[in-house]
Automatic annotation (TrEMBL):
One annotated GO molecular function: NAD(P)H dehydrogenase (quinone) activity
Record-linked InterPro entries: FAD/NAD-bd_sf, FAD/NAD-binding_dom, NADH-Q_oxidoreductase
Pfam families, sorted: Pyr_redox_2 (PF07992)
Name of this protein: FAD/NAD(P)-binding domain-containing protein
Matching Gene3D superfamilies: 3.50.50.100
Gene Ontology biological process terms from the UniProt entry: aerobic electron transport chain
Co-factor requirement: FAD
Keyword Isomerase: no
Length: 318
């Protein structure tokens, strides 16, 4: 198996490590919290910084959109895990990492005041984001006129309004993004609005490329196309170039009129990584080895969409 990276001095794993700082409550950190509930080393002080008291399981969000689950069923309460694992919680968001000083700056969820937190070990599992300034440059009008899958909390807050509107008149929904998230979302939206809304709703998947489900085997892609056709979902392979109050502008100059544009596109690395001092990939994510350990700082780990492996080009889920 080999050993962890050793060219940067690592602190000893028990007697020297007192402060483990967790940023975010992603899937990897949820597993870690569960393990800490089973066994918490006596000399560890563990702190979690995350803005919400519950973590939404993203894999169940399409089922939530489809109306198969209630909101409470797709959320994992953090308090029982933190209490059982003796983990301290700061309700807030990271604003800066100073890797050279082993220090994180964060802001509370309910206050603009800045705080600092020192660490011996840092683990980052915050997920990726849609950065407003990047989104404005890549897809003009999207921030003002489209419903985005990220952040999930915003999607969950606004989706009931879409369902309520669908009960008053037929809606036209355009999901932008031909990956797994876009495909799941358009199927979920069609299931929910056709069941609970007035008849006549239309659904379009704007893939932005020749393939639906690019990266999957040909047989899977063909089956997806059959399922989309069978569900009466239109597939457009033109890229989306802009969104306004009329609908979605396509690369061929056409305008797809729609009531609800939904963004299921690639996400961005958090802006606070840029000046962290950590080694980053070309897209700004934390560069890690096969142990999810920073390639530049041995006391920093990262997992999920905020990280990129240096030995394996894996797709982001968001």
């Amino acid at each position: 198996m080999g050993a962890l990276k050793t060219d940067v001095p690592s602190p000893p794993m028990h007697s020297g490590i007192r402060r483990l700082l967790l940023l975010g409550a992603g899937h990897a950190h949820l597993h870690l919290l569960a393990r800490l509930a089973e066994h918490h080393p006596a000399d560890w002080q563990v702190t979690l910084i995350t803005p919400h008291a519950a973590q939404t399981y993203s894999g169940m969000v399409p089922g939530l959109l489809a109306g198969r689950y209630r909101e409470a069923e797709v959320q994992i309460a953090l308090a029982p895990l933190m209490q059982a694992g003796r983990v301290r919680w700061h309700a807030g968001r990271c604003t800066a990492i100073h890797a050279a000083d082993a220090r994180v700056q964060w802001v509370a969820a309910d206050s603009p005041d800045l705080h600092t937190q020192d660490y011996d070990l840092l683990s980052i599992d915050t997920g990726a984001v849609l950065r407003p300034e990047r989104l404005d440059a890549e897809l003009p009008g999207a921030r003002q006129h489209a419903l985005a899958l990220r952040p999930i909390e915003g999607l969950m807050r606004l989706w009931p309004d879409v369902v309520a509107l669908a009960c008053t008149r037929p809606l036209s929904v355009a999901v932008i993004g031909g990956g797994a998230a876009g495909i799941e979302t358009v199927f979920a939206a069609a299931e929910r609005l056709r069941r609970d809304g007035v008849p006549g709703a239309t659904f379009t998947l704007v893939t932005g490329g020749p393939e639906v489900g690019a990266g999957y085997p040909a047989a899977v892609r063909q089956r997806l196309l059959r399922r989309l056709r069978g569900a009466g979902i239109q597939v457009l392979r033109e890229p989306c170039t802009a969104i306004d109050d009329r609908g979605v502008h396509l690369g061929n100059g056409a305008l797809l009129r729609c009531d609800v544009p939904v963004l299921a596109i690639g996400t961005h690395a958090p802006a606070w990584l840029q000046d962290s001092g950590l080694a980053l990939c070309e897209r700004g994510h934390v560069l890690v080895n096969r142990f999810q350990q920073s390639t530049s700082h041995a006391n920093v780990f990262a997992a999920g969409d905020v990280a990129t492996r240096d030995d394996w080009a894996h797709p982001k889920s968001g």
